[in-house]
Design goal:
It is a single chain. It is built from eleven helices and nine strands. With about 300 residues, it is an alpha/beta fold. The protein is globular. The longest helix has 22 residues. Helix 8 packs parallel to helix 11. About 45% of the residues lie in helices and about 10% in strands. The strands form three sheets. Strands 2-4-8-7-3 form a five-stranded mixed sheet.
Length: about 300
């Protein structure tokens, strides 16, 4: 995956609080994990069937680290696509910029209103509109404040703990999946994600988010950047797509259950099998059309 080296990045959509605690508004809203979950949530939600939103703690005691970079530093470090080609956090900024541009264009073309959804980078723990959460929850979307939350340390977990090959597009797939949840929130579909089991609403919701991530990937190299009018992402190879497919499979419920409990119990699935996740990402990627992502049909 390559970015236009001369493109100007918009860091306003990525708010950086690494190394510090965020003050949020704990309350209602739906917390949707991306199916790329931390170890504790894996044990609780995949094996025990516990809602990931319940796994939270007080950021005043959990948040830590020193020298959080801050929004000003992120803006200084991530100026152009050249920075995105060499720095992980700048790559996330560029992916978010591409996702926002694509979904605004797509929703507007469909006669719908698109609300921007910022990504919040954090370490250790964070306070959100959906309540408090730790890094162990993994990347997630909160419908109460329309934000995607991400601890970049998760990508080390994805390769080291869950066995994915990783790579730039594996990371992009994770972020795109969370923005798929934002689209579901805007369209009212997110309320249908409940229950457990291979045919549950939760599984269908997650598979649809995978499909929507694929739809974005289909258009990633042709979506114009609002500032330059040229695509921010200039190259996306089949090898890149393979990274996303590999990440999707690595966090399939069946693979996680086999790894951590030694057996597969489809009645407790919340995100879908490895094959299902790959299938629906591929469906979106090949078609490039949102209407092919009706996993609820």
């Amino acid at each position: 995956m390559e970015f236009d080296e001369d493109a100007a990045l918009d860091t306003s959509e990525v708010q950086d609080n690494r190394g510090g605690a965020l003050s949020g508004i704990p309350g209602g809203g739906k917390t949707v994990g991306g199916g790329v979950v931390g170890l504790l949530v894996l044990i609780a939600s995949v094996v025990l069937g516990v809602d990931p939103g319940l796994l939270s703690s007080d950021p005043a005691t959990e948040a830590g680290g020193s020298g959080g970079t801050g929004a000003a530093d992120l803006a200084a470090d991530c100026r152009t696509g050249a920075d995105a080609n060499t720095k992980e956090d700048c790559r996330i900024v560029a992916v978010v910029d591409s996702l926002q541009a694509f979904w605004k264009q797509t929703e507007s073309a469909a006669g719908k209103s698109y609300t921007q959804a910022p990504t919040w980078l954090f370490t250790n723990s964070v306070s959100t509109g959906c309540g408090n959460a730790t890094s162990e929850v993994g990347p997630f979307y909160c419908s109460a404040d329309d934000k995607v939350y991400l601890d970049l340390g998760f990508f080390d977990e994805l390769t080291g703990r869950f066995g994915a090959k990783g790579g730039p597009f594996a990371e992009a797939y994770v972020v795109a999946h969370e923005y798929g949840h934002h689209i579901q929130d805007l369209n009212g579909t997110i309320s249908r994600g409940s229950g457990q089991g291979r045919d549950s609403g939760s599984v269908k919701l997650e598979l649809q988010a995978d499909c929507l991530a694929g739809v974005w990937a289909h258009h990633a190299t042709t979506t114009p950047d609002p500032k330059s009018g040229k695509p921010l992402i200039t190259e996306l190879t089949e090898s890149d797509i393979g990274q996303g497919m590999d990440a999707a499979a690595a966090v399939g419920d069946d693979r996680l259950q086999e790894k951590y409990q030694g057996s597969v119990t489809p009645d407790t699935w919340t995100h879908g099998s490895a094959a299902q996740r790959q299938k629906w990402f591929t469906t979106g990627y090949r078609s490039g059309k949102v209407d092919t992502c009706n996993t609820f049909a």
